[in-house]
């Protein structure tokens, strides 16, 4: 999913899209800030990534699987959620719809 997030950030960032990665660790060794920072650098992640070691964000959005993409509109309402890989065309279509609502 990282290549798609990177592409969406590049394509739609100036139009108002904000991509934020959320790292919710599956294993204890994934909780290290240094490891997360090294991984984002290695994977050339250019958008912000927050560390969710206590699963507060995970629980707030009702996430139950990795990866999950959540699109939130300008009012903070969840407008789209996709669980797992794939569904990129559908997600991108919703991104375009949400950005059009800004006008």
What attributes does this structure have?
single chain; 103 residues; alpha+beta; Glutaredoxin; two-stranded parallel ribbon; two-stranded antiparallel ribbon; 4 helices; 17% strand; globular
Brief rundown of the structure:
The mean pLDDT is 95. The chain has one domain: Glutaredoxin (3-Layer(aba) Sandwich). The protein has helices at residues 2-12, 33-42, 56-60, 88-100; strands at 21-23, 49-51, 68-72, 78-83.
Your description of this structure?
The protein has 103 residues and is of the alpha+beta class. It has a single domain (2-100), classed as Glutaredoxin, CATH 3.40.30. Helices cover 38% and strands 17% of the residues. It has four helices and four strands; from the N terminus they run H-E-H-E-H-E-E-H. It has helices at residues 2-12, 33-42, 56-60, 88-100, and strands at residues 21-23, 49-51, 68-72, 78-83. The strands form two sheets. It has a two-stranded parallel ribbon. A two-stranded antiparallel sheet has the order 3-4. Strand 1, helix 2 (33-42) and strand 2 form a beta-alpha-beta unit. The longest helix has 13 residues, at 88-100. The termini are far apart.
Q: Span between N and C termini?
A: 28 Å
Estimate the helix proportion, in percent. 25-40%
CATH architecture: 3-Layer(aba) Sandwich
Q: Label the structural class.
A: alpha+beta
Question: Regions with pLDDT < 50 over 5+ consecutive residues?
Answer: none
Portion in beta strands? 15-25%
Number of strands: 4
For the largest beta-sheet, the strand count, sense and barrel status come to: 2 strands, parallel
Task: Record the strand order, biggest sheet.
Answer: 1-2
Task: Summarize the helix and strand pattern as letters.
Answer: HEHEHEEH
């Amino acid at each position: 999913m990282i290549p798609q997030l990177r592409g969406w950030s590049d394509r739609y960032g100036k139009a108002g899209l904000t991509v934020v990665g959320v790292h919710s660790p599956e294993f204890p060794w994934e909780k290290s800030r240094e490891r997360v920072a090294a991984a984002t650098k290695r994977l050339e992640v250019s958008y912000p990534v927050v560390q969710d070691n206590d699963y507060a964000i995970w629980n707030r959005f009702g996430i139950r699987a990795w990866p999950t993409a959540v699109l939130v509109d300008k009012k903070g309402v969840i407008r789209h959620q996709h669980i797992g890989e794939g569904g990129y065309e559908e997600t991108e279509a919703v991104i375009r719809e949400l950005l059009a609502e800004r006008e």
